[in-house]
Amino acid sequence: MRRYIPEDITGFMVSTGIVKQSEVDLAKASHLARILAIDAFWPTGTPDTGTGTLVASVEDAVRLGVDCVKMLLPWNVNDAEKVLYCKRVGAVVSEASKWHIPVMVEPVFLAAPRTPEIIEAELEVARVGYDLGADIIKITFPGPDATAKLCAELDIPVVVAGGPRSGDAKSTVKDIKEAIEAGAQGVVVGRKIWQRPPEEAKDMMKEISAITRKHFTRRW
Asked: Which residue in 1, 148, 162, 213 has the fewest CB atoms around it within 10 Å?
């Protein structure tokens, strides 16, 4: 994180531990936003038998001074787990509204290949997140046409996730450009950048920053 603070970025997605350990560093860079992941799911490799849970509360987020909270909404889980997820997301949205903290919801099919069927299903789960009261939807890039349709339909900010490192830097930058041109209001990219050699990662961030300024269209 310290390596990337001086770069042309707008913030970090963080865990509670990282927020605590980086408090001094980010106090000196108060222009950077922090999005706190407040839930977890395990084991991710077997979603049909795994369990999700909150690992931090909205009150924790307020106390830590973060700008947004993020929750998963996995949908290839059993029906009982789906009900629990909907209940948790709804409760967090309600509590966060009291503190004027936005809630980012990430629809996802855990450990599933990126087939056309999975991509279409994630779009449906994004609509579930919207119905539960999400302020922001974070979704793995479904392609430019689907991104444009989702942005227009939901009319709340949609940001595109990077996901695990795959492909080369050029393909990642291309996807981000297409997502922003389609109406995405931002990108949340981690492993596809910081798992690369430092100089390559730095060059990627410069390209992505330029894209988000040149091709971004504010929808509100």
From this structure: 213
76 Cβ neighbours under 8 A, 6+ residues apart: 47, 48, 109, 110, 112
For residue 54, which of 12, 95, 3, 100 has the smallest C-alpha distance? 95
Burial bucket for residue 220 (CB in 10 Å: 0-12, 13-18, 19+): exposed
Q: Determine the CATH number of domain 11-214.
A: 3.20.20.70
Q: Does pTM top 0.85 for this prediction?
A: yes
The string of DSSP codes covering 86-134 is HHHHHHHHHHHHHHT--EEEEEE-TT----HHHHHHHHHHHHHHHHTT-
Band (14; pLDDT cuts 50, 70, 90): very high
DSSP category for residue 56 = S
51: number of CA atoms within 13 Å, CB side? Answer: 3
